[in-house]
Amino acid sequence: MKRTIAFGGIVATAGLLAAGLAAPAQAADDVVGTPLANTGITAYEISAFWLAEGAANLIAATPYDVETKIVAKHISTGGPAADSKPGVVPAIGDEKKTAAKSKNVNLPKTTGKVFFSDGYKWVPITKNGRTYWWPQAINPHWCTATSIQAAYKNLVATAGSCVYDTDRNKSTTSSWVFVPGYYQGKTPWGIYVGKQAFTHYDFDTYEDGDRDYAFVTVYNGVKGLHDGSDVLGDYKEVSKEVYDNFPYEWRAKGYHCFQWNGKYYAYAFVDAGRLGDNVGGQGLAYNQKVGKPVFVFGYPSGSHPDGNYAYSGKTLKWSYGKTFAASASAIKAEELIGVKSSFTGEGALGSSWLVGYKNTRRLGYLNGVTIGVSDTDSNNRYDTSISPYFDGELFGVYSAAKNLWSGSIAVPSYK
């Protein structure tokens, strides 16, 4: 999906207020909920798909590129109009604490990469004289995302374009997982399979850039017993019913399940626990005054228009600046915000914008997600990132996702 964007401004809102304000009303028809992996076996299969062969599919993934050339104009006055009162949701573990100040910039553990692909193909692998099969990803990609506050500590926020497949006009991207702290195949806190995705009706139906955001509930994380190898966990004896529920291709190829001496066996992952328990979760701020300073955290990759290769996408980066009002008719967006940033677009899609970021606790309030970058002064260097304005409509989508339980997939469940 290629995007050419021009900026413009409208009226600003009230400032950041304390938590506990009345939540804005939200019509249920405005929220779209879509299953990603709504059964244990599907989630189990997705986990094995990404972790097999030393996480080869994760390592092979490339940054998701939804824009290449953006024409922009910086408008510093005005801002989006609030549709309800300002409000905040505190971060996990920060519900009753006051803000702390620090001059250091400590990177948040909550940020990571989301991975997805266009499906897979079976590839034969020969080891120690034995040939077996594993699913190789077709066009694996990644974006940036962050863990956010939720009742069951199981929620991820990112750009809608990183979940809902507007590029190929499909419902959602395939085999969606979140990996906080990912680095070169290492998954320090495990991988978290997406269970259900939520976005605004206008983005799902009309690709409205003002609603280019998504919240995804995730299952408990899973790990292999031997990090960095193709050993995902111990084989466990299972019932024939459980074995029969594995994908036919797996049973036919002996992939992570097999029969021996009249018994049935399958890999059982190690349960890494809930996302928020492991890395925390950012708070949420909506209907905020435009012009507040924000930290942007993400995994930018690729080059500037002039060919300068600024970022590798391998490590988490940050930028800092004050937001300003923006619009983008090319993506049907009239209520965006921008911030000065040298992030390149590849990989930075879904980067978290945090206001009130506390360096000592590495927590703040999510107030934006990157949906594109821009070269505003036409010098062939990206200098601006843009995000939807977080308003009461966004809070309604968040509210639809924040109280849903996910559970564990370490031992496959088929109910």
From TrEMBL:
SUPFAM superfamilies: Trypsin-like serine proteases. Keywords: Signal. It comes from the Bacteria. It comes from Acrocarpospora macrocephala. InterPro entries: Peptidase_S1_PA (IPR009003), Peptidase_S1_PA_chymotrypsin (IPR043504). Coiled coil: none annotated. The keyword Signal applies. Residues 1-27 form the signal peptide. This is Peptidase.
